[in-house]
Design a protein that fits this description.
It is built from seven helices and ten strands. Strands 7-6-10-8-9 form a five-stranded mixed β-sheet, covered by helices on one side. Strands 2-1-5 form a three-stranded antiparallel β-sheet, with helices on one face. A two-stranded antiparallel ribbon has the order 3-4. The chain is an alpha+beta fold. Among the domains are: 65 residues, wza like fold (2-Layer Sandwich), CATH 3.30.1950; 91 residues, Outer membrane lipoprotein wza fold like (Roll). The N and C termini lie far apart (89 Å). The longest helix has 33 residues. β3 and β4 form a beta hairpin. The C terminus is likely disordered.
Length: 247
């Protein structure tokens, strides 16, 4: 009996050691995984670095405007006004400066472009002082597509919500699915962030938080509702009488 009890004790000890070594760490790891960020995909960053994982990095908010092709800038020389000029940014990103040749300005802020222009004119002027002012630029816009009366691209003027953007596009048509509108927001040149919006509740006054502000470059897509998708398969009113079950 003593030998049997001793064998059983050794089995129990071995089982306890197995649980402590293998099972508990695995359970702890799964628990840690479950406690990771569970916020909605639209509310959290897609990634922290575009170079490490191949996913997009979020853009910094509040960044200064960068010059684009077709922008117009005014260049002022307080000490040498004969070089004052207004130039266009060409499609290749260069601006032709009087007396200094072509300088690449696309992608620069007005402050950075002022430094680049100073460097260009330092070849013919001694310590030039330059002031750069943005005169005309690519105006902010948003796009509405899908089941609206006037889909297209619209200028973004002031604070505009998603429902207001749809109204500017002529409003929903009879085929629209109000509860599954998609908001596409560009994060960089390759990636969009997508958020579904239930504008049906918003228009009914139930959940105004589902009516976010539209930002420059946003696109709203209004999908087609189920009834309109199958409408072409439903018999017309003339054929409906043939399928009527009760007179």
């Amino acid at each position: 009996m003593f030998g049997v009890s001793r064998w059983k004790v050794s089995q129990i000890v071995a089982a306890v050691v197995f649980v402590m070594v293998y099972c508990i760490p695995a359970i702890a790891q799964k628990s840690g995984d479950l406690q990771q960020d569970t916020s909605p995909p639209f509310a959290r960053p897609l990634t922290t670095s575009s170079s490490d994982s191949g996913h997009p990095a979020l853009e910094h908010r509040g960044a200064r405007y960068q010059l684009c092709a077709s922008d117009v800038i005014s260049i002022t020389f307080p000490l040498t006004p004969e070089y004052n000029q207004t130039v266009n940014i060409q499609p290749d990103g260069f601006a032709s400066l009087s007396g200094a040749g072509d300088v690449h300005l696309e992608g620069l802020t007005t402050g950075q472009s002022g430094t680049a222009i100073q460097t260009a004119y330092a070849k013919i002027l001694h310590d030039p002082i330059v002031t750069v002012e943005l005169k005309d630029f690519n105006k902010p816009y948003f796009t509405v597509s899908g089941q609206v009366h006037k889909p297209g691209k619209f200028d973004l003027r002031g604070y505009t919500t998603a429902t207001e953007a749809v109204a500017i596009a002529g409003g929903f048509n009879e085929s629209a699915k109000h509860s599954q509108v998609l908001l596409f927001r560009r994060k960089n040149d390759d990636w969009y962030e997508v958020k579904p919006l239930d504008l049906k509740k918003t228009l009914q006054g139930h959940d105004v938080s589902e009516d976010p502000q539209v930002r420059p470059g946003d696109m709203l897509f209004v999908p087609q509702n189920f009834i309109s998708k199958i409408k072409k398969f439903i018999p017309s009113s003339g054929m409906g009488a043939y399928y009527q079950m009760h007179p």
